[in-house]
Specification:
1% of the residues lie in helices and 16% in strands. It is mainly beta. A hairpin with a 3-residue loop joins strand 22 and strand 23.
């Protein structure tokens, strides 16, 4: 406060008793130097009470107008109000109240303590989420930053130090692949969203319901079985495995009433209604079930013409079940039974045979056609070229005479003294083919077996390459001795060796699905044929060394060992795993493959564990509709997995050379080369024939095996002839639902059985 101001205040407040500091001096005198700085107010001192302020004084860093120029330098003002100015090097940014000398460094990208350095973590935002590294709990994850919304992903999204979308801290306690915040029961690995619902009393798919049974998976009657397994959950005396009693109720829930009940009697199904039952159709009942009889004497319960005592018919069947079937004997092997063959000593005579020019009743219609008879006994019948079978001097061997129009040699030239065929020559003038204008002197020789130029020679008999056949005899290249109709075809070499018009394909490997078939050629290409409803026969481009066919899909191993699939994929059967594999087999809606060490990998439908093989290595394996079997590479024993409803996955404890899995049964080639089958046998699919064999293959309900000779032997279901193989020599077999195929000894394809979708018509 200036002295003048003090005087003024004292004048206003007289009661205070103020008195000037300098007695005898006028406190308002502008000529007096009150602050002793050498200047008076009249001399330019802007504050004569402050010795540090006078005209042309040096400015110092004190926030005062020292030189009395009316301006306080910007560097001496505290613009940001943080108590520090720039002039003393105390404030490195006077526009930011958080930056001054000695300030505390905070995470704001500012040099708060004015030491000339900003920490690196105040400058970086590596994940681009808008938060500096010093504030971000994970600067490598753009989903984690302070204030973010916490979601169920196992990450601390809001940087509060805890992934806490749920109280369990987003854990996967049961290791089922689903976090606790999404898992309805994180202590149960069998419960998580998307898991198939099964009958176990648990909410497997996390939909809030135990709905394997629409009414809930409850045990309402307290018999220890849930409603989804119990056929009557209101009766505690009815459940799977319960003992049957004779009361017209299915106590054991196997859909058969009173089967195996005390007092139940054996009955046999009579499918064809001939009053005789099938021994394989045994059923027990307290009351006789419909369509059953009390005997099992029918040898063919699908044919009502076959039963004990039935009259024998000429149909190749054992109609009377005796089982002698003399009426089916075929002494001459022409396919006609003696009961229908008019000459069972001649293989060229039988019902329906074409009539040929042999003087015999070839078709067994009871007559020999007149043109097959030699009526004039000249050695020729009408069909053998006798143009007048009433004249012994007229026949194909007779000499043509110039006898006024008689065709002595039956060559159609009838007027040797005239030119009947208009070729300019008569018979007597050297026309050896009168009646044919293309036969006569000077006519070019043709490949027709005739002497077309009448020179007594036939050019068509010339064999240019010395292979025994001329061009006219079918040699399609008479300059190459290795090409002729008798040569062996070498497939895929661009040459038609056997002159059949095609460069025949040869085949190395075969696989049959339900009603489609695929084969790998010897040049590693694949051809598929049959049902293509799911594109299962549309082979993608590539080079392949192995193929396997399922119900409506196909998979193959490429030449690099990877697996490629096409066709149906409704159950993931087309989602082949990565890696390289040596062997591949496909069943209903799943496949399995083994790598070079025999380690199996499976994929596709897994309703009964069919894609969960045991932890073994396999030397060989096979898969059926919903199960698989393999040979343990360490012991030769068989191990099976998947469906076991009929014991098809319970093999005998023997050593095997090979196993084959079917729909509801399995068969194997034992170490002594004999066959053994296990599982369901309702249509004879388990009745493997006696003998020794080199390989075995299984279809849906039938099987086939190769004898050491290469001949095929089949058994089981034969509704479409799938168990009737042709009499060929085979190298390999593959069986589908109702058809069978094989690769023959000359690497060709042969199929038999059902052909409703073309599955038995190979390329």
């Amino acid at each position: 406060m200036t002295y003048r101001l003090m005087i003024a205040l004292c004048a206003l407040v007289l009661t205070v008793g103020c008195k000037p500091e300098f007695e005898g001096i006028n406190p308002l005198d502008p000529e007096h130097d009150f602050d002793g700085d050498g200047q008076t107010e009249n001399e330019g001192d802007c504050d004569d009470n402050d010795p540090d302020r006078f005209d042309r004084d040096l400015e110092v860093c004190d926030g005062i107008d020292n030189d009395c120029d009316g301006v306080i330098p910007e560097t001496e003002t505290d613009d940001d109000g943080d108590g520090f100015t720039e002039c003393g090097d105390d404030d490195c940014d006077d526009n930011d109240p958080t930056a001054f000398a000695g300030g505390t460094e905070v995470c704001d990208g500012v040099d708060n303590d004015c030491d000339g350095d900003i920490d690196s973590d105040e400058l970086e935002d590596e994940d681009g989420d808008g938060f500096l590294a010093c504030n971000d709990c994970d600067d490598d994850d753009p989903q984690a930053w302070p204030g973010n919304v916490e979601v169920c992903d196992g990450i601390d999204n809001d940087c509060n130090g805890d992934p806490d979308a749920d109280p369990a801290h987003e854990a996967d306690t049961d290791n089922d692949g689903v976090l606790s915040c999404d898992d309805c029961d994180d202590l149960n690995p069998d419960s998580f969203p998307g898991n198939p619902e099964i009958c176990d009393g648990e909410d497997n798919d996390c939909n809030g319901l135990t709905d394997a049974d629409p009414l809930g998976e409850f045990d309402n009657d307290g018999d220890g079985f849930l409603s989804c397994d119990d056929c009557d959950d209101g009766d505690d005396e009815i459940y799977p495995g319960q003992t049957e009693i004779c009361d017209e109720v299915d106590q054991d829930c196997n859909d058969v009433i009173d089967d195996g009940a005390d007092g139940a009697l054996p009955y046999y199904y009579d499918v064809d209604g001939d009053t005789f039952g099938d021994e394989d159709g045994l059923v027990y009942g307290c009351l006789q079930p419909p369509n059953t009889v009390e005997n099992d004497l029918d040898c063919d319960d699908l044919n009502d013409d076959t039963y004990p005592g039935a009259p024998e018919l000429c149909d190749g069947e054992d109609n009377d079940c005796d089982p002698a079937t003399d009426e089916t004997e075929d002494a001459d092997g022409d396919g006609s039974a003696v009961c229908a063959d008019c000459d069972d000593t001649n293989e060229f005579v039988g019902p329906g045979f074409p009539e040929v020019c042999d003087g015999l009743d070839s078709d067994c219609d009871g007559t020999v056609p007149p043109n097959e008879q030699d009526l004039d006994t000249d050695g020729f019948s009408g069909c053998e070229g006798d143009c007048d079978d009433g004249d012994i001097d007229i026949n194909p061997d007779a000499a043509e005479l110039c006898d006024a129009g008689v065709d002595n040699d039956c060559d159609a030239g009838t007027d040797e003294n005239g030119d009947g065929d208009g070729d300019g020559f008569t018979t007597c003038e050297g026309d050896c083919g009168e009646g044919d204008p293309l036969v006569g002197p000077n006519v070019p020789e043709q490949c027709d077996g005739l002497d077309t130029d009448c020179d007594a020679g036939t050019d068509e008999n010339v064999d240019g390459d010395g292979d025994g056949l001329s061009a006219c005899a079918g040699d399609c290249d008479d300059t190459d001795i290795s090409v002729n109709p008798s040569a062996t075809e070498i497939g895929w070499d661009g040459i038609d060796q056997d002159c059949d018009g095609t460069d025949q394909e040869t085949w190395a490997l075969l696989s049959a699905g339900s009603d489609h078939t695929c084969a790998v050629s010897t040049i590693d290409t694949i051809e598929c044929w049959g049902n293509n409803s799911e594109n299962q026969t549309d082979v993608p481009a590539g080079t392949y060394v192995h193929v396997a066919s399922g119900d409506a899909h196909t998979c193959a191993i490429t030449d690099t060992g990877t697996v490629v699939c096409w066709g149906a994929n409704n159950n993931g059967q087309g989602n082949a795993p990565g890696g390289t594999f040596d062997d591949l087999q496909c069943g209903g809606d799943f496949c399995c493959a083994t790598d070079g060490g025999g380690n199996p990998s499976c994929w596709g439908f897994n309703s009964v564990g069919q894609t969960e093989p045991p932890g073994l290595t396999f030397e060989q394996f096979s898969v059926g509709y919903n199960h698989g079997c393999g040979l343990d590479s360490l012991g030769g024993g068989a191990d099976c997995w998947g469906s076991n409803t009929h014991g098809q996955s319970t093999p005998p404890s023997d050593n095997f050379l090979e196993v084959a899995a079917a729909d509801t049964n399995s068969c194997g080639l034992l170490s002594d080369s004999t066959l053994d089958c296990w599982g369901f046998n309702n249509v004879g699919q388990g009745n493997a024939p006696a003998g020794t064999y080199d390989m075995v293959a299984m279809g849906q309900f039938h099987g086939c095996a190769l004898a050491p000779s290469g001949g095929a032997v089949c058994w089981g279901w034969n509704t479409a002839g799938q168990a009737n193989p042709p009499g060929l020599i085979f190298e390999e077999l593959a069986l589908g639902s109702q058809h069978s195929c094989g690769i023959t000894e000359d690497a060709a394809l042969e199929c038999w059985g059902s052909n409703t979708s073309g599955q038995s018509t190979p390329p």
